[in-house]
Amino acid sequence: MTKLMIEDRCILNGTVEISCAKNAILPIIAAALLTEEKCTLKDVPALDDVEVMEAVVRSTGAHAVREGQNQLIIQAESITDYEATYELIRKMRASFLIMGPMLARVGKVRISLPGGCAIGTRPIDLHLKGFSTMGANITLGHGYIEAYAERLKGDSVYLDFPSVGATENIMMAACLAEGLTVIENAAEEPEIVDLASFLNKMGGNVKGAGTDTIRIEGVKALKGTTHTAIPDRIEAGTFMIAAAATGGDVTLQSVVPEHLKPVTAKLKEMGAEITESEKSIRVRANERLNPIDIKTMPYPGFPTDMQSQMMTAMCVAKGTSIATETVFENRFMHINELKLMGAKIKVDGRSAIIEGCEKLSGARVKATDLRAGAALAIAGLCAEGATEISDVYHIDRGYITIEKKLQKLGAPIKRIEE
Ligand code: EPZ
After folding, report:
1. Residues with beta carbon inside 6 Å of ligand 1?
2. Which numbered atom of ligand 1 lies nearest the CA of 298?
3. 339 C-alpha to center of ligand 1: Å?
4. Which of 7, 220, 259, 273 is the most exposed place for a label (fewest CB within 10 A)?
5. Cα(94) to centroid of ligand 1, in Å?
6. For the chain, what is the mean pLDDT?
7. Is the pLDDT of residue 373 over 70?
8. Which atom of ligand 1 is nearest to the CA of 327?
């Protein structure tokens, strides 16, 4: 079993390089199935989730190979298998993102229902609503979804909630559909804009990504292209919070400050000093942070993927904060672990009331999901005495060598393989 061991509290100082965004790369790998030509993705971190997505596209008969350390080549010259098995979908929910590209490219797909996960039930009804509006014939049985469509037909799809995955899946499918697809109440996350830019480089015609209405005019075929995904705003936000919570001084390189506005605004409210330049952000804090309230919302609201890390900062703030989770129904699993470290938190429905204390105390805790794990790492950096985090595989899904990046900032953290 792999563990992360943090010896004692510390103050983070220095510079950290942010990697390309996992949540941008995953749909882009799926989108490469839309063409028989070669797609080259640059600066792809070898995260566990990215490797699962590579395996998913390979399972269709496509080639996905790494060149050097960080270049990923995908070529789906011919698609020979139409099934994404339970084993693959169970490993990573985002594997479901191949449904749109497969339906659009080869007209059929059989894919395991993803089921619930640690952060909630996470239905896929909006994805399916989109495909059936576009003429796909969908049947469900034995835990699998089968979908057929000779050629999808563009139509208007209104999403009841601006789901990131549904927007991406429908947007990809619509690129090869006949005529115009309009997605209303679409998700506006930067990862959607990045996917649209990749699809347009492939010869697609996607307009309006980044707003709540996306218009996609279908084309007959797409071509190969080369792309570098946007910087990971969640990895960046995690380091920003770690810097502020430890009273440190950290500069993040290779970021898009605009994407981090919701986090920056809250950290400023907490008293941190933030300096932005075109591609970097410096975060400084030299006293205990002020308490704040946050409510997670779709972009440009405060991201659900930052809620647990921000909660750790609230745990050591000088007063009472409230965190309300509106996106996922079960994203408070980190609370019990934070309590083991001395945090004072009460849950009232979808809100957590956090009474800040001067310091946390090191303990043995367990990462319950990816961002919960990151929150515990920050907690360990703010805790007196040793913290041992188990189930580190959750953290490895979305943070590349987190301990090395933190070590560079002076954190007494190491990875232990047992
Ligand atoms: C994406 O998940 C991200 N994953 C998540 O990142 C992120 O937390 C989430 O968006 C919200 O920002 C990837 O990009 C790979 P949603 P996704 O569809 O697409 C409900 C991380 O830690 N919903 O926007 O699955 C759903 O239940 C992760 O990196 C429906 O009701 O999220 C949830 O309550 C985890 N029906 C809400 O919408 C549907 O058909 C938002 O989900 C689809 C979603």
Report:
1. 23, 26, 94, 120, 122-127, 161, 163-166, 187, 304-305, 327-328, 370-371, 398
2. 12
3. 27
4. 220
5. 9
6. 96
7. yes
8. 34
Which pLDDT value is given to residue 115?
65
Instruction: Name the closest-CA residue to atom 19, ligand 1.
Output: 165
Q: What are 1-24's pLDDT values in tens digits?
A: 899 999 999 999 999 999 999 999
> What pLDDT was estimated at residue 336?
97
Mutate-to-test residue for ligand 1 from 125, 163, 183, 233, highest number of ligand atoms within 8 A of CB: 163
d(CA 143, CA 379): 39
Residue 108 sits at φ, ψ, to 5 deg, of: -155, 155
CA distance 250 to 243: 6
More confident residue, 104 or 84: 104
Find the 275 Cα to ligand 1 centroid distance in Å.
31
What is the Å distance from ligand 1's center to 93 Cα? 10
- Between the CA of residue 98 and those of 27, 151, 213, 275, 351, what are the distances in Å? 8, 16, 22, 39, 34
Percentage of the residues of the chain whose pLDDT score is greater than 90:
92
**With 80 as the cut, is the pLDDT of residue 355 above it?**
yes
**To which residue do tokens 């115009």 refer?**
180
Q: How far is Cα 261 from Cα 308, in angstroms, rounded to an integer? A: 17
Q: What's CA 291's distance to the chain center, in Å?
A: 26
The per-residue pLDDT for 114 is 81
One-letter amino acid for residue 54 of the chain: E
